[in-house]
Structure formats: C-alpha cells, structure tokens
Amino acid sequence: MPDPHTLIDKAIKLLEIEQEVYGAFSVKGIKKSENKKKVTMSFDTSTSDEALNQLSNIKSLVELEDYCKTCEILRTDLTDTNLVMGAGNPNADLMLIGEAPGKQEDLLGEPFVGRSGQLLTKIMEAINFQRNDIYIANILKHRPPDNRDPLPAERLRSLPYLLKQIEIINPKLILCLGRISAQTLLGCKDSMKDMRRIFHPFMDKYELMVTYHPAALLRNPNWKKDTWEDVQLLRKRYDEMGGKP
C-alpha cells in the first residue's frame, strides 16, 4: 500500500461535500475525462500508522474482514450494528461500490439485499451479469442511524479499508452507485451530471464509472433510462477490456 499523502486536500474536499444537487441530465455521447489528476490513496489522521501498517500486510478478503471486525473506527454512532464488508466474486473484474448498509443489509451482513438490492440485481442481469460474477461493497462498513447519508468524517475514516478491499480484488472496472460513493472515491463535489458517462482514471490502474444508486431510482423512476444508458456503456467497456465472464 502506498504511503499516506495529500491528506489535507482530501479532507478539505470531503468536508466540503454538500447536499445532493442535480443539474439537467441531457447528455449526448460519451465524454472523455478531462480530469488528469490521478486519484490516489489518502487517509484520515485518526487512522494510526499501526493500523495502516497492518492494512498493508493484509493479503486476502478474509484477513481484511477479520481485521475490520476489531476496528471501532469503522462504526457509526448507531450501536450494535453488524459489519457489512462485501459480497460476490473475490476475483471479479467488475466491482460495484455503494454508500452504506441499510437495515436489511445490517441484519444479514451483506450489501444490497433490500428493495434497492433487488433492483440492482435486475439491472446487472439486464447486461448479462449475475451477482456471483461481480463484487459489491459500500464506502461505510456499518449502518448509519436512520439510513442517513454517511458523514464526511465517516467516509474519510472508512476509505483506507475500502481502498485495501479494491486493491485485493483488483477489478478492471469500478462502478460507483450514487453521488456519495462517487464523490468520495473521486475526491470531488461534482454533480451527477458531471460525473456520469465518463470513465475516470482511478488509483493509476483502474477505470471508474458513475451511475445512480438503485435507491434513488426507486424514488425517481425517471432516472432509470439514464441508468440503463450508463450500464450499457459499462458493459461495452468491460467487454473491450477483456473482462470475465
């Protein structure tokens, strides 16, 4: 794992993230990313050097999950929640990343198992992915109270553990589900309009795409068309990169 760096810039960006603001969604064609900045690993000061050293020595998802069970830093201010690390193919070429576990996810210890999870399964099946073809995780590993948005500080504390998860899985493509997931990983506060339909360079070796969170689609069915266009682009790029299956 690279040494921690650019902490202040990362913290400022995350702390500046505001409430969800969507612009118009009339987008034609595929935009190429104009952001030449490379997204790299940055860490919260509350992540100790000892913790970072332990993370750097972890080689498997099983080891990572066992370690995260002991990490109080990953907890929210909701008590007695279960750790929800991720689910799916540990060797997946496609990794999906949401925001935080909800009530059902907390109870079952698996991400995306409620109504939004059922919708996500249908979306993936529509582009010929089964759940066991891909790997699904969240920024936060514990449920926040009342299913509120993850706080900037919570996201920053959780980021090193998620980045280690990505490093172990080593996917070809990452799909961020929702504004908070995308802004956290890209270190920005851009709107969904500006983040969608772009293959963003990420951590020097991956490509990252952004689409709506399935929970947002349940509240706003008119966004389903845009999501369908996004995931078709995702599938096309996946095939071009030789993703398996």
Oligomer: single chain
Q: Which spans of ≥5 residues are poorly predicted at pLDDT below 50?
A: 1-45
How confident overall, as mean pLDDT?
85
Number of strands: 6
Question: Helix segment count?
Answer: 10
Shape by Cα distribution: globular
Order of helices and strands: HHHEEHHEHEHHEEHH
**Fraction in helix:** 25-40%
The largest sheet is: 6 strands, mixed
Cα-based radius of gyration, to the nearest Å: 17 Å
Major sheet: arrangement of strands:
1-3-2-4-6-5
Q: Could you explain how this protein is built, in words?
A:
With 245 residues, the protein is an alpha/beta fold. A six-stranded mixed beta sheet has the order 1-3-2-4-6-5, with helices on both faces. The model is unreliable at 1-45 (pLDDT under 50). 40% of the residues are buried. α1 crosses α6 (152-169). A hairpin with a 3-residue loop joins β5 (200-202) and β6. Helix content is 40%, strand content 11%.
